Amino acid sequence: MRRLVMALAVAAATLMPAAPAVAAPADFTATEVSFTSNDGVVLHGTVLAPASGGAARRPGIVMLEGAGNRGRSYLRPEAEAYARHGVVTLIYDKRTEGYSAVHRDFSLLADDALAGLRLLRDRPDVDPSHLGLWALSEGAWVAPLAANRSADVRFLITVGAVGITPAAQTAWAYGTYLRHAGVSGSLPRTMRGTVVQTTIDLGIFAESDFDALPAWQQVRQPVLNQWGQLDRDALPGLSSRLIGGALDRGGNTSHTIRIVDGTNHNLHRTAADGFDRLPDLPADYADFETAWIADPSLTAPSASLADEPAPPVFAAGDHAWVSSGVVLALLVAFAGFLVVGRRSKLGRPARWLAVLTPVTLVATYLYLMFLLVVAAKVTGPVVLGRPLPWLLLQLLALATVAATVAVAATWRHHLDLTTPGRIRLALLTATGALFAVWAVQWGLLLP
């Protein structure tokens, strides 16, 4: 019964008539569509097509979004540019079932792209022999998988493709953006190393070790790989060399590497040396791409790029569990301090330590989580090479260690304590010692 219901749902979605064209500028039309992926998930999108129809069939592209789920409107300016250049273009909302901030499956996203491609292939205004994928950033990890699965993919165009694993790319980008913000010292090391490794170990960095190069090596269709000269996310120098090398090793003789002057990761105009995300497209956007679709042998002069420094290498390990064990032991010791012999008079350093330890621990995790959410692109004011919140956290960590030393030094003054009082003092001292281990591990006690 369940299979029957799913089959009926898939059939209904497939046969659903397209919505009428919605209001759009006179040079193209926009039509709302729905299509179904292999697992039965229905996706919703918009097809933008040149307004002047005629009998001639036109090239078609399916656009693959970058990381996150911003919705089809995020790629609307690019889609409109291609439609104005005579290309029928599909943009669609990325699935929410099976895709989230902590779960992504590039193979599943490749199936979605091919489902969209089938929708375009069946349109009377699309030429199936000029049907391809356009992929941005994360989408360029997906595109070669899709190309290797279907002969319907006649060409690939990528923007900001990454030639290393998502984990290594993320760590490199953290360092790049923090350095641009004037941040030095332990925070970049913590973000590039401890934070990324912890997300991998906890299983919340899906596809962290995905290597796209084997898939690129199998691609036989014509490929146009493009990077902005001021791309601060995709390591354009290293990625262009690695992906170009994989295509060469696979025997692909029809691929073009293009570096676009003065543009950022999205091939948009930039007013901040590539560290912004302005919505403005260059005036000649899609000129070269549409000419290349008509003739994949077309080449264009490209700016030269040097390889970026080698990014770190990550593998699943036990770092997060060791850190979690330290934190758990710290919390147990602190809880014991709160429970045992609460009437014992331990003095001011003990009271300070009892307050500073949990406050510093929680505040550190909250700030690092904030940096994760904003991809280290928003740090707050920078003082002495440190974001002000991180500087305050380091000062709190130093104060916590100082309080621990002060508590340990008071042992000889508390020989008259009752047994519960001595236990409480020992637990508090252990809490401070464990905190120091944790603070070193997370960079709070490092320069």
Automatic annotation (TrEMBL):
<dbReference type="InterPro" id="IPR029058">
    <property type="entry name" value="AB_hydrolase_fold"/>
</dbReference>
<dbReference type="InterPro" id="IPR053145">
    <property type="entry name" value="AB_hydrolase_Est10"/>
</dbReference>
<keyword id="KW-0472">Membrane</keyword>
<keyword id="KW-0812">Transmembrane</keyword>
<feature type="transmembrane region" description="Helical">
    <location>
        <begin position="352"/>
        <end position="376"/>
    </location>
</feature>
<keyword id="KW-0378">Hydrolase</keyword>
<dbReference type="GO" id="GO:0016787">
    <property type="term" value="F:hydrolase activity"/>
</dbReference>
<keyword id="KW-1133">Transmembrane helix</keyword>
<protein>
    <submittedName>
        <fullName>Alpha/beta hydrolase family protein</fullName>
        <ecNumber>3.4.-.-</ecNumber>
    </submittedName>
</protein>
<feature type="signal peptide">
    <location>
        <begin position="1"/>
        <end position="23"/>
    </location>
</feature>
<keyword id="KW-0732">Signal</keyword>
<feature type="transmembrane region" description="Helical">
    <location>
        <begin position="320"/>
        <end position="340"/>
    </location>
</feature>
<feature type="transmembrane region" description="Helical">
    <location>
        <begin position="423"/>
        <end position="444"/>
    </location>
</feature>
<feature type="transmembrane region" description="Helical">
    <location>
        <begin position="388"/>
        <end position="411"/>
    </location>
</feature>
